[in-house]
Specification:
The chain has about 375 residues and is mainly alpha-helical. Helix content is about 65%, strand content about 0%. α6 packs across α7. The N terminus and C terminus are likely disordered.
Length: about 375
């Protein structure tokens, strides 16, 4: 039975679970609390059939509309769309400082552990002393060490929800959690997964694609639930303002309950990106070879040569052909030759971008700090 359902849904499972199901929850809340007749539970009688049809249609429409608008909905929560420039810059500085503090706390705990084990290198002793002399890091260090290895792993988890490149830090938690795996392919292999995403998605193994879709589905669920709550709250406020609520106290309680839940769904969406990040990482790692073969290229044996190849391929797709991109010929497979790693000469490469395609870093981005970085 389960197999039949999955076959019937096919590729629509992500739409159903990620957008339609949360919309159903919000339509039910809207119907039984905001709509006057339903809030008196009168529709459980003769109008039950009409109310059920209306609810199903409203659920489908709301889910499809949210799914169609998912790009701007995500970008607003990521801090890329609809944010005043000064606010976005201020939040970005906040998250950059937070990232540096987490990095310093993790490094300080690791060095303190080495000191307790008696294996702290002489070169690291001044660094640990600087951490202990810092008024903020020293306060965290005692607590972090006392909480043990599990807390240290949680600190690492929070740190890894930020992109490695400080210039890629976004104004929001969700933006940073997504940005960290958007930059993965470029940071490791110079494979811009944002530019080559559709090609990579087509060439990657089916299991990797399915894993990525399932992981994103969880994030979509919480994002859809969040926006649906905001729509229901807005409708409830309008009903209270016009005096049409049959049970004002129930509508007020609903508003007071849904607003905190939106913050909870946002937090759960951030946490759910961990699985999404792992799936995208696997797609990049496992899909590079079939992607190269599909593009008529072959992976060099040396990692540095591979990074040069993907940099050229990404620039070719992103910016169009330029004379300097002819260096990609060194990695192309001749039609009559088997796929083998070439021994390319060191080509003159065009200037590489510092990061994948993304909103440009603001001019006031603080430089990467040393150890310890300013919290």
């Amino acid at each position: 039975m389960t197999g039949l359902i999955q076959s019937a849904l096919g590729g629509g499972r992500a739409l159903l679970v990620g957008w339609i199901l949360p919309s159903l929850i919000n339509v039910l809340v809207f119907g039984f609390v905001v709509v006057p007749k339903l809030s008196r539970f009168a529709a459980l009688g003769a109008e039950a059939g009409r109310a059920a049809i209306f609810g199903l249609v409203a659920t489908a429409v709301l889910g499809l509309v949210l799914a169609a608008l998912q790009t701007p909905l995500y970008r607003f929560l990521e801090g890329y769309l609809g944010w005043p420039q000064r606010l976005a810059a201020a939040r970005r500085r906040h998250h950059l400082a937070r990232k540096h503090l987490l990095r310093n706390r993790v490094d300080a705990v690791a060095l303190a552990g080495q000191e307790r084990a008696g294996c702290l290198a002489v070169a690291d002793q001044p660094v640990l002393a600087a951490f202990r002399a810092h008024p903020i890091i020293s306060r965290h260090l005692v607590t972090d060490v006392n909480k043990g290895e599990v807390w240290f792993a949680l600190l690492n988890e929070r740190l890894h929800r930020y992109p490695l490149d400080d210039r890629q830090v976004a104004p929001t938690q969700l933006g940073n959690a997504i940005r960290r795996f958007e930059e993965y392919g470029y940071d490791r292999f110079r494979l811009d997964s944002q530019v080559l995403w559709h090609e990579l998605n087509a060439a990657a193994p089916d299991s990797a694609r399915q894993q990525t879709d399932d992981a994103r589905m969880s994030v979509d669920f919480f994002i859809s639930l969040l926006y649906g709550h905001l729509i229901v709250v807005a409708a409830a406020i309008v009903e209270l303002a016009v005096g049409n609520a049959s049970r004002p106290w129930l509508v007020t309680v609903m508003i007071a309950g849904l607003l905190p839940l939106t913050m909870l769904w946002y937090r759960l969406a951030v946490v759910a990106t961990d699985e999404w990040a792992g799936a995208v990482r696997a797609m990049v790692n496992l899909g590079r070879h079939p992607l190269a073969a599909a593009l008529g290229l072959t992976l060099p044996q040396r990692l540095e040569d591979e990074r040069a190849m993907w940099r050229l391929a990404s620039n070719l797709v992103d910016t169009g052909f330029r004379p300097g991109l002819s260096a990609l010929d060194a990695y192309r497979i001749a039609p009559s030759e088997p796929s083998a790693a070439p021994t390319p000469t060191q080509p003159t490469l065009p200037a590489a971008r510092s990061s994948p395609a993304a909103p440009a870093a603001t001019a006031d981005t603080p430089p990467s700090g040393g150890a310890p970085a300013g919290p």
